[in-house]
Specification:
Pfam families: DUF7869. The protein has helices at about 10-25, 45-55, 60-70, 90-110, 150-155, 170-180, 190-200, 215-225, 230-265, 330-350, 370-385, 405-415, 425-435, 460-465, 495, and strands spanning about 40, 45, 120-125, 135, 165, 205, 270-280, 305-315, 320-325, 355-360, 390-395, 445-450, 480-485, 500, 515-520, 525-535, 540. With about 550 residues, it is α/β, with parallel strands linked by helices. It folds into 3 domains: about 5-80, no CATH class; about 90-210, no CATH class; about 260-295 and about 305-480, no CATH class. The strands form 4 sheets. Strands 7, 8, 9, 10, 11, 12, 13, 14, 15, 16 and 17 form an 11-stranded mixed sheet that branches. Strands 1-2 form a two-stranded antiparallel sheet. A two-stranded antiparallel sheet has the order 3-4.
Amino acid sequence: MPCNRQIAVLSDDECIAEDGNIVDLLKQLPDDKSGKQQVVLNRLVCQDAFRRLLGIGASRYARLKRAAVTGAPVPLDGRCLKKPLLTKNKASVTKRSMITSFLTELYHTLSEPMPEASQSLRQSSADAGAESVPRNMRFRRNRGRRPRAAGLWHRGKDQTELRLLPPGSFNDYLSLLRARYPEEKLSLKLFTKVWSHSFGTRLAIREASNHAQCATCTRAKMLIKKLSNDQVARDHQVAMFQKHLATQYSDRTVYWASRAMSRLPLTPTGNRTISIVADSIDHNKFRWPRSKVFLSKEFGSYIRPTMDLTCLICHGHFLLLGMSQSWVRKDSSFCTDLLLHALHSLMEQGTDLRSCEVLLQTDNCCREWKNNCLIRMGALLTASHKVARFESRHLMTGHSHEDIDQFFSQVGNMLESSTELHSPSAFVRALETWLAKPSVRPHEPIKSVRKIDTVRAWKTFLHGACLENHLRGITGPGAPHTFALDRRGTLPGDVAAAVVCPAFWLPYQWEPHPDDVILRTDTSGTYWYLAKTILCNDMLTV
């Protein structure tokens, strides 16, 4: 029996068949003489209930009732018929299709399902510890959100599929579209009109924040704006900006693939992939104590200490939050200790890391994750057969890590609802209570919070225990974003037989060994020995 029919997705034949079923129901007259005139599922119902159950209006009911009484053919529903476009201008139709395909591509490649897209935002006061004042989500054109008409046309509609684009303006995205079709004259009015009508509940531009943005994106947008009088130079900058966005999307697709592999219990080859993404949240959100008393003017100049929160998401396995106070150094030793604790937790769960490849996804910060300390530790784990292989991947600065940034947004919303947190232990208890909810990161069954007071000096240990294998050029412009560490015996034949640069081991004149760890990057065709196995004294040196 038809109910709540979706007119927009039904064909003409389906609509006729559906209306025919309604006419058959209207022909079923009740036996008694009560006020109820229709029968639905052998139950007498009134006209209003009949229309509500079948999702039809009064005028449509009258036409179908007349057809049932007189035996006339079922009248067509005009809502199901294909309507011509409001404009007869073929050029306008072509431009609309171009804009629609472009926005569809942005929706699938560049946008992200951030939590604040479908939730009401909270506006914090000047004091981070003050009670937050909730406000409705406002899409304003000058703030870089949706077109203003979208909020009027789609008010009250479902926005669960709304995704956010990186911060910018409508002119920025229109310039990308114009660079793709330079022969077409695409106006901002038509661009925003199509956006409002077709993507009003699906696509929006993320509101500008104090979070650091990608330097390449910022430079490209400023140059495009300044080169308004030079069309050739402007088109060249737009092409470079498009290439940069394509590279950023390719990074995300690689991350999505590794995330999906990490959630699988086993692969056809028998090996497993452990994908770990790590990042830190803004420490200004963790000022303590947090209380309503700081709304008072007497505490206007009160300086409160902050705490740092680092998150490790091991997809499909667990989530680890490491909270530390401001006097704990957040250097490479801290990150190495947190990573080793995560790997130890996997071993306690029964995971055999010897057959697992570990993929570490972090940002491009050399102080914490992208440094020699982490690379040396990965080489040590690979050479000692603790893991099958180790790969460190670093996204471009300023671009979102998607999963972990969404999680940090949820953490921020949770903290805004907790106004009385007087000590670091209170923050830990609040996070543990929130993580215990089944709706928080359902793919990670184990979620824990650890307060870190001290870390091991891994940087000093690895630097003193290693030979001279210090890597240079891993930071700065043109530096690689991927560091793959494999044992020589596990690499394909053509790679293992390739000429490996022996710069680190040339003074020692050591022969190649299958357990030697070879470093490969994404920007250089040269392979490096990063760990060497010495058989004479059964010693491993990195």
